[in-house]
Amino acid sequence: MSYIDTLYLELPGLLSAMHAEDYQHPITILDLPTLSVVLSKADQIPRNYSSYYSLADHEISGNCDAKWGTEYLDLRSTHDEHHEKNGFWLRADPMIHQAQTLAVHLLGNRQLPRTLNMTSFQQKFNQIFAETIQLSYLEPYEGYLFCSNHPQVEFISPLQALGKDQLHCFPKGNDANYWKKIITEIQMWLHSIQAMDRNQESPFNSLFLWGNPNACLPNIQAQYLVSSSHLLLGAAKRLQISHEKLPDCYQLMQLESFKDQNIQCLQIVDLELLWLRRQGLVTAWQNYLQTWQKSWLAPMLEALKAGQVKQLALDLGNDYIYELRAKHLRRFWRKNKPLEKFCH
Fold first, then answer.
1. pTM tops 0.70, yes or no
2. DSSP letters along 208-245, please?
3. Nearest to residue 308, comparing CAs of 7, 34, 28?
4. DSSP output for 38-52
Protein backbone atom coordinates (compact mmCIF):
# COMPACT_ATOMS: atom_id res chain seq x y z
CA MET A 1 0.00 0.00 0.00
CA SER A 2 1.35 3.40 -0.95
CA TYR A 3 1.36 6.20 1.59
CA ILE A 4 2.24 9.87 2.09
CA ASP A 5 5.04 10.69 4.55
CA THR A 6 3.98 14.33 5.04
CA LEU A 7 0.80 16.01 3.89
CA TYR A 8 1.43 19.76 4.12
CA LEU A 9 -1.76 21.83 3.86
CA GLU A 10 -1.70 25.61 3.44
CA LEU A 11 -4.94 27.40 4.23
CA PRO A 12 -4.00 31.06 4.84
CA GLY A 13 -6.68 33.36 6.17
CA LEU A 14 -8.14 30.83 8.62
CA LEU A 15 -6.53 31.72 11.95
CA SER A 16 -5.03 35.10 11.09
CA ALA A 17 -5.89 37.68 13.74
CA MET A 18 -8.27 40.54 12.99
CA HIS A 19 -6.67 43.94 12.36
CA ALA A 20 -9.11 45.63 14.74
CA GLU A 21 -8.53 44.39 18.29
CA ASP A 22 -12.17 44.81 19.30
CA TYR A 23 -13.46 42.85 16.28
CA GLN A 24 -14.64 39.30 16.99
CA HIS A 25 -13.01 36.68 14.81
CA PRO A 26 -15.71 35.04 12.63
CA ILE A 27 -14.45 31.57 13.56
CA THR A 28 -15.50 31.97 17.20
CA ILE A 29 -19.22 31.58 16.49
CA LEU A 30 -18.83 28.41 14.41
CA ASP A 31 -19.18 24.84 15.61
CA LEU A 32 -15.98 23.22 14.34
CA PRO A 33 -15.28 20.34 16.74
CA THR A 34 -12.88 18.46 14.47
CA LEU A 35 -10.69 21.50 13.80
CA SER A 36 -10.75 22.50 17.46
CA VAL A 37 -9.57 19.09 18.65
CA VAL A 38 -6.90 18.87 15.97
CA LEU A 39 -5.42 22.22 16.99
CA SER A 40 -5.52 21.22 20.65
CA LYS A 41 -3.73 17.90 20.15
CA ALA A 42 -1.21 18.78 17.43
CA ASP A 43 2.37 19.84 18.11
CA GLN A 44 2.72 23.60 17.63
CA ILE A 45 5.92 24.59 15.84
CA PRO A 46 6.74 28.33 15.62
CA ARG A 47 6.72 29.33 11.98
CA ASN A 48 10.23 30.79 12.19
CA TYR A 49 11.61 27.43 13.30
CA SER A 50 9.72 25.17 10.93
CA SER A 51 11.22 23.49 7.87
CA TYR A 52 8.13 24.04 5.71
CA TYR A 53 8.23 26.43 2.76
CA SER A 54 5.03 28.38 2.14
CA LEU A 55 3.98 28.71 -1.49
CA ALA A 56 0.98 30.82 -0.49
CA ASP A 57 3.35 33.49 0.83
CA HIS A 58 5.14 33.49 -2.51
CA GLU A 59 1.95 34.23 -4.45
CA ILE A 60 0.44 36.66 -1.91
CA SER A 61 3.59 38.79 -1.89
CA GLY A 62 3.28 39.31 -5.62
CA ASN A 63 6.48 37.42 -6.47
CA CYS A 64 4.78 35.63 -9.32
CA ASP A 65 5.56 35.49 -13.00
CA ALA A 66 2.36 35.25 -15.00
CA LYS A 67 4.24 33.22 -17.60
CA TRP A 68 3.95 30.22 -15.31
CA GLY A 69 0.19 30.28 -15.62
CA THR A 70 0.53 30.81 -19.36
CA GLU A 71 2.78 27.80 -19.76
CA TYR A 72 0.51 25.67 -17.63
CA LEU A 73 -2.36 26.50 -19.98
CA ASP A 74 -0.15 25.91 -23.05
CA LEU A 75 -0.59 29.44 -24.34
CA ARG A 76 3.03 30.21 -25.13
CA SER A 77 2.97 28.05 -28.26
CA THR A 78 0.38 30.35 -29.83
CA HIS A 79 2.84 33.25 -30.17
CA ASP A 80 5.80 33.72 -32.42
CA GLU A 81 9.44 34.03 -31.43
CA HIS A 82 9.39 37.84 -31.64
CA HIS A 83 6.63 38.05 -29.04
CA GLU A 84 8.41 35.55 -26.85
CA LYS A 85 11.52 37.74 -26.70
CA ASN A 86 9.90 41.15 -26.44
CA GLY A 87 6.69 40.60 -24.51
CA PHE A 88 5.28 38.87 -21.51
CA TRP A 89 1.92 37.78 -20.21
CA LEU A 90 -0.10 39.63 -17.61
CA ARG A 91 -3.21 38.27 -16.01
CA ALA A 92 -6.44 40.29 -16.07
CA ASP A 93 -8.33 40.30 -12.78
CA PRO A 94 -11.62 42.25 -12.77
CA MET A 95 -12.56 44.01 -9.56
CA ILE A 96 -16.12 43.19 -8.49
CA HIS A 97 -17.90 46.24 -7.14
CA GLN A 98 -19.60 45.89 -3.76
CA ALA A 99 -20.72 48.38 -1.15
CA GLN A 100 -17.64 50.18 0.18
CA THR A 101 -15.23 47.59 -1.18
CA LEU A 102 -13.45 46.42 -4.30
CA ALA A 103 -12.76 42.71 -4.51
CA VAL A 104 -10.21 40.90 -6.67
CA HIS A 105 -10.81 37.30 -7.68
CA LEU A 106 -7.89 34.92 -7.96
CA LEU A 107 -9.16 32.95 -10.94
CA GLY A 108 -9.39 35.89 -13.26
CA ASN A 109 -12.67 36.67 -14.99
CA ARG A 110 -14.74 34.11 -13.12
CA GLN A 111 -17.46 36.65 -12.33
CA LEU A 112 -18.14 37.60 -15.93
CA PRO A 113 -21.70 36.50 -16.74
CA ARG A 114 -22.04 33.82 -19.40
CA THR A 115 -24.43 36.11 -21.24
CA LEU A 116 -21.60 38.52 -21.96
CA ASN A 117 -20.50 38.31 -25.59
CA MET A 118 -16.81 37.63 -25.05
CA THR A 119 -15.97 37.99 -28.74
CA SER A 120 -17.22 41.57 -28.88
CA PHE A 121 -15.67 42.19 -25.45
CA GLN A 122 -12.30 41.06 -26.75
CA GLN A 123 -12.61 43.10 -29.96
CA LYS A 124 -13.49 46.31 -28.09
CA PHE A 125 -10.78 45.77 -25.51
CA ASN A 126 -8.14 45.20 -28.18
CA GLN A 127 -9.37 48.23 -30.10
CA ILE A 128 -8.80 50.46 -27.07
CA PHE A 129 -5.36 49.06 -26.36
CA ALA A 130 -4.41 48.93 -30.06
CA GLU A 131 -1.27 46.83 -30.49
CA THR A 132 0.16 47.56 -27.05
CA ILE A 133 -1.53 44.63 -25.34
CA GLN A 134 -4.00 42.04 -26.55
CA LEU A 135 -6.64 40.18 -24.59
CA SER A 136 -7.18 36.45 -25.12
CA TYR A 137 -10.04 34.82 -23.29
CA LEU A 138 -10.08 31.09 -22.60
CA GLU A 139 -13.61 30.80 -21.27
CA PRO A 140 -16.01 33.19 -19.52
CA TYR A 141 -14.00 32.91 -16.31
CA GLU A 142 -10.43 33.13 -17.61
CA GLY A 143 -8.53 35.75 -19.55
CA TYR A 144 -4.93 36.74 -20.21
CA LEU A 145 -3.24 39.83 -21.64
CA PHE A 146 -0.15 39.81 -23.83
CA CYS A 147 2.04 42.90 -23.45
CA SER A 148 4.72 43.59 -26.07
CA ASN A 149 5.70 47.26 -25.78
CA HIS A 150 5.63 48.21 -22.10
CA PRO A 151 7.35 45.52 -20.02
CA GLN A 152 9.20 47.91 -17.70
CA VAL A 153 6.27 48.89 -15.51
CA GLU A 154 5.94 47.25 -12.10
CA PHE A 155 2.53 45.87 -11.12
CA ILE A 156 1.57 44.88 -7.61
CA SER A 157 -0.38 41.73 -6.80
CA PRO A 158 -4.19 41.87 -6.58
CA LEU A 159 -4.10 40.97 -2.89
CA GLN A 160 -1.91 43.96 -2.12
CA ALA A 161 -4.25 46.20 -4.09
CA LEU A 162 -7.43 45.29 -2.21
CA GLY A 163 -9.11 48.25 -0.58
CA LYS A 164 -6.82 50.80 -2.23
CA ASP A 165 -7.18 53.32 -5.02
CA GLN A 166 -5.47 51.60 -7.91
CA LEU A 167 -3.85 54.80 -9.17
CA HIS A 168 -2.17 55.19 -5.77
CA CYS A 169 -0.73 51.71 -5.62
CA PHE A 170 0.16 50.95 -9.24
CA PRO A 171 1.62 51.22 -11.76
CA LYS A 172 5.19 52.27 -11.04
CA GLY A 173 8.26 52.54 -13.19
CA ASN A 174 9.10 54.02 -16.58
CA ASP A 175 5.65 53.46 -18.09
CA ALA A 176 3.51 54.66 -15.18
CA ASN A 177 1.92 57.67 -16.89
CA TYR A 178 1.09 55.66 -20.00
CA TRP A 179 -0.61 52.95 -17.96
CA LYS A 180 -2.61 55.43 -15.88
CA LYS A 181 -4.09 56.86 -19.07
CA ILE A 182 -4.89 53.40 -20.40
CA ILE A 183 -6.46 52.36 -17.09
CA THR A 184 -8.67 55.44 -17.04
CA GLU A 185 -9.84 54.78 -20.59
CA ILE A 186 -10.58 51.11 -20.04
CA GLN A 187 -12.45 51.86 -16.80
CA MET A 188 -14.71 54.33 -18.60
CA TRP A 189 -15.57 51.62 -21.10
CA LEU A 190 -16.12 48.97 -18.42
CA HIS A 191 -18.65 51.22 -16.71
CA SER A 192 -20.55 51.62 -19.96
CA ILE A 193 -20.88 47.98 -21.05
CA GLN A 194 -24.38 46.59 -21.30
CA ALA A 195 -23.79 43.35 -19.39
CA MET A 196 -25.61 43.73 -16.06
CA ASP A 197 -26.06 41.44 -13.11
CA ARG A 198 -29.35 40.68 -11.35
CA ASN A 199 -29.15 44.03 -9.53
CA GLN A 200 -28.68 45.86 -12.83
CA GLU A 201 -25.14 46.82 -11.93
CA SER A 202 -22.01 46.35 -13.98
CA PRO A 203 -20.39 42.99 -13.10
CA PHE A 204 -17.03 44.69 -12.57
CA ASN A 205 -15.77 48.23 -12.56
CA SER A 206 -12.02 48.20 -13.03
CA LEU A 207 -9.15 46.11 -14.25
CA PHE A 208 -5.98 45.13 -12.40
CA LEU A 209 -2.90 43.95 -14.24
CA TRP A 210 -0.14 42.07 -12.50
CA GLY A 211 3.03 40.23 -13.25
CA ASN A 212 6.77 40.28 -12.75
CA PRO A 213 8.79 39.08 -15.75
CA ASN A 214 11.98 38.89 -13.66
CA ALA A 215 10.61 36.86 -10.75
CA CYS A 216 12.30 33.63 -9.73
CA LEU A 217 10.53 30.30 -9.58
CA PRO A 218 9.30 29.37 -6.11
CA ASN A 219 11.19 26.74 -4.18
CA ILE A 220 8.69 23.88 -4.38
CA GLN A 221 10.02 21.21 -2.04
CA ALA A 222 7.10 18.81 -2.33
CA GLN A 223 7.01 15.85 -4.69
CA TYR A 224 3.39 16.56 -5.53
CA LEU A 225 1.51 19.90 -5.58
CA VAL A 226 -2.26 20.36 -5.46
CA SER A 227 -3.55 23.92 -5.74
CA SER A 228 -6.24 26.24 -7.10
CA SER A 229 -3.54 28.63 -8.34
CA HIS A 230 -2.68 28.40 -12.04
CA LEU A 231 0.54 30.27 -11.33
CA LEU A 232 1.75 27.72 -8.78
CA LEU A 233 0.69 24.84 -11.01
CA GLY A 234 2.52 26.44 -13.91
CA ALA A 235 5.65 26.79 -11.78
CA ALA A 236 5.38 23.12 -10.82
CA LYS A 237 5.16 22.22 -14.50
CA ARG A 238 8.31 24.18 -15.31
CA LEU A 239 10.10 22.48 -12.43
CA GLN A 240 8.81 19.08 -13.63
CA ILE A 241 6.99 18.46 -10.35
CA SER A 242 3.81 16.38 -10.40
CA HIS A 243 0.75 18.56 -9.87
CA GLU A 244 -3.00 18.77 -10.24
CA LYS A 245 -5.77 21.31 -9.80
CA LEU A 246 -7.43 21.43 -6.37
CA PRO A 247 -10.55 19.21 -6.41
CA ASP A 248 -13.73 19.72 -4.38
CA CYS A 249 -12.73 17.28 -1.65
CA TYR A 250 -9.83 15.17 -0.41
CA GLN A 251 -11.16 11.91 -1.80
CA LEU A 252 -11.14 13.24 -5.38
CA MET A 253 -7.39 13.77 -5.57
CA GLN A 254 -5.91 11.75 -8.42
CA LEU A 255 -2.35 10.83 -7.49
CA GLU A 256 -1.72 8.92 -10.69
CA SER A 257 2.03 9.60 -10.68
CA PHE A 258 2.47 7.85 -7.34
CA LYS A 259 0.08 4.92 -7.62
CA ASP A 260 2.72 2.31 -6.90
CA GLN A 261 5.15 4.29 -4.77
CA ASN A 262 5.28 6.43 -1.66
CA ILE A 263 5.09 10.23 -1.62
CA GLN A 264 7.60 11.94 0.63
CA CYS A 265 5.70 15.25 0.68
CA LEU A 266 2.34 16.26 -0.79
CA GLN A 267 1.60 20.00 -0.58
CA ILE A 268 -1.93 21.42 -0.88
CA VAL A 269 -2.34 25.20 -1.29
CA ASP A 270 -5.90 26.52 -0.96
CA LEU A 271 -6.20 30.33 -1.10
CA GLU A 272 -10.00 30.59 -1.09
CA LEU A 273 -10.39 31.51 2.60
CA LEU A 274 -7.82 34.26 2.25
CA TRP A 275 -9.60 35.76 -0.76
CA LEU A 276 -13.01 35.62 0.95
CA ARG A 277 -11.58 37.28 4.03
CA ARG A 278 -9.82 40.06 2.11
CA GLN A 279 -13.12 40.79 0.38
CA GLY A 280 -15.01 40.99 3.67
CA LEU A 281 -17.36 38.14 2.71
CA VAL A 282 -17.81 36.81 6.25
CA THR A 283 -20.77 34.49 5.60
CA ALA A 284 -19.10 32.94 2.55
CA TRP A 285 -15.90 32.55 4.58
CA GLN A 286 -17.75 30.72 7.36
CA ASN A 287 -19.62 28.47 4.92
CA TYR A 288 -16.40 27.56 3.13
CA LEU A 289 -14.67 26.72 6.41
CA GLN A 290 -17.50 24.44 7.52
CA THR A 291 -17.43 22.67 4.16
CA TRP A 292 -13.65 22.39 4.36
CA GLN A 293 -13.81 20.70 7.77
CA LYS A 294 -16.16 18.05 6.36
CA SER A 295 -14.63 17.60 2.89
CA TRP A 296 -10.94 17.93 3.71
CA LEU A 297 -9.98 17.78 7.38
CA ALA A 298 -12.15 14.82 8.40
CA PRO A 299 -10.98 12.60 5.48
CA MET A 300 -7.37 13.59 6.19
CA LEU A 301 -7.74 12.35 9.76
CA GLU A 302 -9.19 9.08 8.49
CA ALA A 303 -6.16 8.71 6.22
CA LEU A 304 -3.92 9.43 9.21
CA LYS A 305 -5.62 6.76 11.31
CA ALA A 306 -5.43 4.24 8.46
CA GLY A 307 -1.70 4.81 7.99
CA GLN A 308 -2.12 6.25 4.50
CA VAL A 309 -0.64 9.53 5.79
CA LYS A 310 2.20 9.44 8.32
CA GLN A 311 2.14 13.12 9.29
CA LEU A 312 -0.25 16.01 8.71
CA ALA A 313 1.11 19.58 8.81
CA LEU A 314 -1.37 22.48 8.86
CA ASP A 315 -0.37 26.04 7.96
CA LEU A 316 -3.45 28.11 8.80
CA GLY A 317 -2.22 31.68 8.71
CA ASN A 318 -1.10 32.34 12.29
CA ASP A 319 2.32 32.04 13.93
CA TYR A 320 2.47 28.24 14.07
CA ILE A 321 2.61 25.09 11.98
CA TYR A 322 0.45 22.32 13.47
CA GLU A 323 1.90 18.82 13.13
CA LEU A 324 -0.36 15.86 13.75
CA ARG A 325 0.50 12.15 13.79
CA ALA A 326 -1.48 9.02 14.53
CA LYS A 327 -0.26 9.01 18.14
CA HIS A 328 -2.08 12.30 18.74
CA LEU A 329 -5.38 10.61 17.92
CA ARG A 330 -5.28 8.00 20.70
CA ARG A 331 -7.13 10.30 23.07
CA PHE A 332 -8.61 12.33 20.29
CA TRP A 333 -11.89 13.40 21.87
CA ARG A 334 -10.57 14.73 25.13
CA LYS A 335 -11.52 18.23 26.18
CA ASN A 336 -10.21 20.77 23.70
CA LYS A 337 -9.40 24.46 23.87
CA PRO A 338 -11.63 27.19 22.37
CA LEU A 339 -10.74 28.03 18.78
CA GLU A 340 -10.14 31.70 19.55
CA LYS A 341 -7.03 30.66 21.53
CA PHE A 342 -5.35 29.83 18.23
CA CYS A 343 -6.14 33.07 16.35
CA HIS A 344 -2.79 34.83 16.71
1. no
2. EEE--TTPPPP----SEEEES-HHHHHHHHHTT-EEEE
3. 7
4. HHHHSEEEEGGG---
Query: Cis peptide before 12, with omega less than 30 degrees from 0?
Result: no
If DSSP codes are grouped into helix, strand and coil, which group holds residue 257? helix
Task: Give the domain-ending residue among 191, 210, 229.
Answer: 210
Burial class (CB in 10 A: 0-12, 13-18, 19+), 186: middle
Residues 273 and 310 placed together within one structural domain of the fold: yes
> For the segment 2-41, what is each residue's pLDDT rounded down to a tens digit?
789 999 999 988 887 655 555 677 788 888 888 988 888 8
Say yes or no: 153 and 102 in one domain: yes
87 shares a domain with 185 = yes
Give the tens place of pLDDT for each residue, 180-199.
666 666 656 655 555 444 44
Q: Is the pLDDT of residue 172 over 80?
A: no
Task: Please say whether the beta carbons of 7 and 313 come within 8 A.
Answer: yes
Residue 99, classified by CB atoms within 10 Å of its CB into exposed (0-12), middle (13-18) or buried (19+), is exposed
Domain containing 241 equals 4-60+218-342
98-102: long-range contacts at Cβ-Cβ below 8 A with a sequence spacing of 24 or more? 98/279, 98/280, 101/163, 101/279, 101/280, 102/162, 102/163, 102/205, 102/206
Do 26 and 91 have their domain in common? Answer: no
279-317: pLDDT as tens digits: 667 888 899 999 999 999 999 998 988 889 999 999 998
Same domain, 116 and 77: yes
Domain total in the chain: 2
pLDDT digits (tens, 9 = 90+) for 86-134: 344 444 444 443 333 323 222 233 334 444 555 666 676 677 666 556 6
Q: What's the mean pLDDT when you consider all of the chain?
A: 67
> 227 - beta bridge partners?
245, 269
What is the rounded average pLDDT of the residues 47-68?
A: 70
- DSSP-based three-state secondary structure for 27: helix
Report yes or no: 303 and 6 within 8 Å, Cβ to Cβ: no
Cα–Cα distance measured from residue 54 to residue 32, given in angstroms and rounded to the nearest whole number: 25
> What is the rounded distance in angstroms from the CA atom of residue 235 to the CA atom of residue 238?
5
Which of 210, 239, 267 is a domain's end point?
210
